[in-house]
Amino acid sequence: MSIAFLLTTLVVVATPGTGVIYTLAAGLSHGRRAGVVAAFGCTLGIVPHMLATITGIAAVLHTSAVAFQTLKYLGVLYLVYMAWATLRDKDALVVEDERAPRSAARTIVSGVLINILNPKLTMFFFAFLPQFVDAGEPGSVASMLELSGVFMLLTFVVFAAYGVLAASVRSHVTSRPRVLTWMRRIFAGSFVSLGAKLAFASR
To answer: Is residue 62 part of a domain?
Structure first.
């Protein structure tokens, strides 16, 4: 495993995107545990893309415009839904009673869907992983699995850090109604912006 792979991976996972926005929102809305759970959900959402790359399914998305566009617009619709849900839920950013935390399953499912419905992630794996694996070696598949595992581990650690950081300031943010309103708008706007970016993305 090279330093170049680790550095590139850190830059990729730390760059704000749909997963980071979702994790920050979860941490601010429901606390540290929800932020970490959201990070776990987003990390699980990487698995299908990883498997698609290793088994060659990514090549189908790469060559089939219909398959790519279908998955892309499903992702756009889900991001628009997330924006609408964020604006609609007036209680989305409140300090909740710790005895009644948000369902972990619901948080994980949302995180998984956010990443599954992002064909650019499959394209990234398709273009990124082979650069660090010698296709001619007998253990190339094992090497790709190892690198994918490291990518997922770093994703979870970085996203969890975002979630915990957001949770650490939630009491200062959620006690101010005006700030809450703007936070909802910012998160909703971020989801719409990311959805628009995905909508105009090409393979």
So the answer is: yes
